[in-house]
Structure formats: C-alpha cells, structure tokens
Write a structure and sequence with these properties.
This protein is α+β, with helices and mostly antiparallel strands and about 260 residues long. It folds into 2 domains: about 25-140, 4'-phosphopantetheinyl transferase domain (Ribosomal Protein L22, Chain A, Alpha-Beta Complex), CATH 3.90.470.20; about 145-260, Ribosomal Protein L22, Chain A. The chain contains 8 helices and 10 strands. The chain has helices at about 25-35, 55-60, 75-95, 150-160, 165-175, 180-200, 225-230, 255-260, and strands at about 45-50, 105, 110, 115-125, 125-135, 140-145, 210-215, 220-225, 235-245, 245-255. The strands form 3 sheets. The protein has a 5-stranded antiparallel β-sheet with strand order 6-10-9-8-7. Helix 2 (about 55-60) packs parallel to helix 3 (about 75-95). The longest helix is centred in the N-terminal third of the chain and has 22 residues, at about 75-95. It is globular. The relative contact order is 0.14.
C-alpha cells in the first residue's frame, strides 16, 4: 500500500518580496500555504507568484541575486524565472537555517547548494517554488510545477513520456482527467531532479514507470529501471502531488538510510 512520505504542516510566510502576479483563488492560496510545509527533520519549502516584468528583475537584484552570463541576453520571462526561483531557494534556506544564502549555478544549469544542504527549484507560468533540506537528513529532494498540458500537446508527447499501461493506470485513478498526462509528466520530472545529483547521468522518461496512483492520498508510485535502481539503491520511488488551479505541483523526497531504519 502506498504511504504518504510526509505530513503537511502550516508555516507562516515571509513577505519580503512584493511582486505583482496572477490573481489566485482563495482555495489555491490555501493549497499553496499548505504546501509551504516544515517537516522535521530539516525540510522547508517556499513559493512565490510573479509575472515577467522589469520590476521583477529589479526586486530580485535587491536580494543579491544576479543572472549568470549565460542568461543576460535571454528572454525577459526566462530571466524572471531564474531570479524568482533563486529567490525562493534563498528564502527557504533562510527559514531553515536562520539566514539567507545564495544558490549559484553549475555549467549545466543545475543549482549549487550551500554546504550541507540539498534542494530543488521549479517555476512555470508565474509560480516558483523551492524545497530545501539538510543533506544529513535527506537523501534526495525533487520538485516540479507544470502548467496544464493541452490535449493536443499531450497526444503528441505521450510516446516520449509514458506507455499505454501507465496511461491506463493514471486515467483510472484520478477524477481530474484533464490533469492525467500533466501529472505523470511532472512527476517524472520531479524524479529526475531528485535522482540526477546522485547518478550524475542522463536517464529518460521510460526509465521510470508508473505502478500505482492513490487519488485520495495524492500519491504516485513508480518503479525504476534496473540500471537506475542499482545506482540509487532503490527499486521504487514515491511522488506526492497537488493540483493548483491550472497547474500541477509534484515532489519526491527520501530520508537518509540511517533515519529510515529508525522509523
């Protein structure tokens, strides 16, 4: 039976950055605040709604966050995505450690977390989130947010993302059929973000296969290919999810082995 990987707790928000963004419904705000959880030991998530504008870049710069050279000529939306994603990481670290720290970027674009920390950053359609924990407690962390993929796009992307059996599992398990493809797509991206820092090599969507979905617990379970399972010492991996308006948020996390053995 699938089991939730954490318990959600309400955490009061920082309001350091005042940005205009899209209007959220009260229910969406409630869901996002529930996602802003603190899980003992040592896990924190921070989110921010924003839009692509020069003022977004200016406010990001006020927090000491600067674009890497590779993005200085990028589209405005891409620059805003980067800055607000890093801002969320900075604030999550501040809530976890008591003071903010910068998150730099590797040559391949992956974040460089301060010593002793592990985390993941995501952004899509004006919503950014970052999750951060202490590496002594967390083996992996991965989070992803995706805007709802249209029916036509999902049909064209389907062969790359999932097989027919996976499609049957997800469509039979959830009521929100419009979200089925996007949910699996996002979940597999969360898994990639969680596992890549461990394997340090590319793996594709078909190295991860959906086995089960518990719609009541909002939990997905996947199996890993033999080669990938050997690299991370795990055959199965769980992904939690939340539907936020026209977006899907997914996340995967695992405690360090010594902590799991104590449970």
């Amino acid at each position: 039976m699938l089991q939730p990987s954490f318990q959600i707790k309400d955490v009061s928000r920082f309001e350091a950055l005042k940005l205009r963004g899209r209007i959220l419904s009260s229910s969406d705000k409630t869901l996002l605040k529930q996602l802003e959880f603190s899980l003992a030991p040592d896990l924190m998530l921070y989110w921010q709604v924003y839009h692509a504008a020069e003022e977004t870049l200016q406010q990001g710069n006020q927090f000491g966050i600067h674009l890497p050279d590779s993005l200085t000529k990028a589209a405005l939306s891409r620059r805003c995505d980067y800055l607000i994603g890093r801002y969320c990481a900075q604030q999550a670290i501040a809530k976890l450690c008591g003071f903010p720290q910068q998150v730099q970027q590797q040559n391949n674009g992956a974040p460089v977390w301060p010593g002793g920390l592990i985390g993941s950053i995501t952004h899509s359609d004006g919503l950014a989130l970052a999750i951060v924990g202490k590496h002594a407690h967390w083996d992996w962390l991965g989070i992803d947010v995706e805007a709802l993929v249209s029916k036509d796009e999902s049909l064209s992307m389907m062969p790359v993302i999932m097989n027919e059996e996976e499609h049957k599992i997800i469509t039979a398990a959830i009521n929100a059929q419009d979200y089925a493809f996007t949910l699996v797509f996002s979940a597999k991206k969360s898994i990639y973000k969680a596992l890549y820092p461990k394997v340090r090599s590319f793996f594709d969507f078909h190295d991860v296969s959906l086995l089960a979905c518990d719609g009541n617990k909002q939990l997905l379970q996947f199996s890993l290919s033999h080669s990938l399972a050997q690299k991370v010492s795990a055959r199965l991996i769980n992904v939690n999810y939340q539907l936020i308006g026209k977006q899907v948020v997914t996340w995967s996390l695992r405690q360090q082995p010594k902590l799991r053995q104590k449970q």
